[in-house]
């Protein structure tokens, strides 16, 4: 194998990790490159279906050339028994002399222990913090889940320049371009679950599937907030269900409607707040228990505001089209009561602009939480 251009082997390991995105949950996406005497001896990246971790795959490809070599890996090697044995043990058995990584694994079962065990065994360990930001972004959901115990929640919306998501009457057609809609599929592919409200389902008869065409480690879980179980049995959502639709409802829902939907494979969960409405916090807690690392919300104005106001949203990804609807009756991206004073506005940080298509852009930003 040839040497990496400029010797940036850690960047190559991160490139490999990217190939596993969407295919590893609830594990992180990891890539590994083994280099000996300036030549790449082995490569590997993890997928859930492939079982073996990136480090092990790279070691297997390198064979005896791994002895005395340097391993570049996108995340700290694991030191605990899971579906496979600890990668630290495989590294030591292979005789790797040095390990370079950008990031400590935030998993409490690892969190520096892998590096420490390597050092104790005489393996040199180097932390390349210059690649840490990219490494975290590749595994944004995993890192967030391990640090907080809850899935990363992204509120996605397509809107006009004046912040509108729907007109008061005719809403046929799309706000954003085909290019932007294709980009949305990449976000869905990176997500473990997607959520909307029953109003959106009834209005659009949407399916909310991952149409990227890329392989996944688990089906995209489609969630509908539906306090009265109004989801039609003949809707695209219900008819396309393959044990991947969950309806969050309340105790007021009809038992007959519940039986009809469950017969189609739809999962029904009563997640109720004290005021009798569906609990978004309850949905997040359920996803956390079942190790869903990330959730994307694609909903209407009221659900968007409820998600923002409740504090469950961690970041936004808003697609803007070069259009203005205007009018007091056109729906804003977030409706509801809103904040009554400017100083109480929900604030964001780490704002990034993404060019999507000609004259279209997206804004990505993280919710600013009090320390």
Give an overview in words.
The protein has 371 residues and is α/β, with parallel strands linked by helices. The chain is built from 12 helices and 16 strands. It has helices at residues 9-19, 54-62, 87-94, 113-120, 132-138, 140-148, 178-190, 198-204, 236-239, 255-262, 280-289, 301-310; strands spanning 31-36, 39-45, 70-73, 98-101, 124-127, 152-160, 164-166, 193-197, 221-225, 245-249, 267-270, 294-297, 315-321, 331-332, 348-357, 360-367. It has a 9-stranded mixed beta sheet, sandwiched between helices. A 5-stranded mixed beta sheet has the order 2-1-3-4-5, with helices on both faces. α3 (87-94) runs parallel beside α4 (113-120). The longest helix is centred in the middle third of the chain and has 13 residues, at 178-190. The N and C termini lie far apart (49 Å).
Order of helices and strands: HEEHEHEHEHHEEHEHEHEHEHEHEEEE
Uncertain spans: 1-6
Biggest pleated sheet: 9 strands, mixed
Structural Rg: 23 Å
Helix content: 25-40%
**What is the CA-CA span between the terminal residues?**
49 Å
Chain-averaged pLDDT: 94
Which class do the helix and strand fractions yield? alpha/beta
The 3D shape can be described as elongated
- Order of strands, main sheet, comes to 11-10-9-8-12-6-13-16-15
Note the beta-strand portion: 15-25%
Number of strands: 16
Count the DSSP helices. 12
